Amino acid sequence: MIPPLAPMTSAKVEPAVEPRQIRRKAAIKREAREIPVSQFGRVRALTKYGMTQAQVADLYEATIDEIDRVIRSPS
C-alpha cells in the first residue's frame, strides 16, 4: 500500500546561504628553470598529446618562452 502524500505547504524550505568570498593567496614568484636537453622529447610529447604550453611550463617550473623554444628546436 502506498502511504498518502504530505501536503506541499508542510515542506520547510531553508533560505539560501550567502556565499562567502575566498581570499586568494599571492602567487609565489619562483625562479624559472632551464629544461635539460634530456627532457626535450617529453616536453614535445606532452604538448603534442593535449597539455598546453602553460601547463607544461608549470610542470617544469619554466617560462612559456622556454617551452616554446624547446618545441621549436630541432630534434
Descriptive report:
- The protein is mainly α and 75 residues long.
- The chain has a domain at 40-75.
- It has three helices and no strands.
- It has helices at 40-48, 53-60, 64-72.
- The longest helix has 9 residues, at 40-48.
- The chain is elongated.
- The N and C termini lie far apart (75 Å).
- The mean pLDDT is 81.
Write a compact overview of the structure shown.
The protein is built from 3 helices and no strands.
Instruction: List segments where confidence is low: pLDDT < 50 over at least 5 consecutive residues.
Output: none
The geometry reads as elongated
Helix content: 25-40%
Number of strands: 0
Backbone structural class: mainly alpha
- Which band does the percent of strand residues land in? under 5%
Compute the number of helices: 3
Integer-rounded radius of gyration: 26 Å
Element-by-element helix/strand order:
HHH
Distance between the termini: 75 Å
Write down the oligomeric state.
Answer: single chain
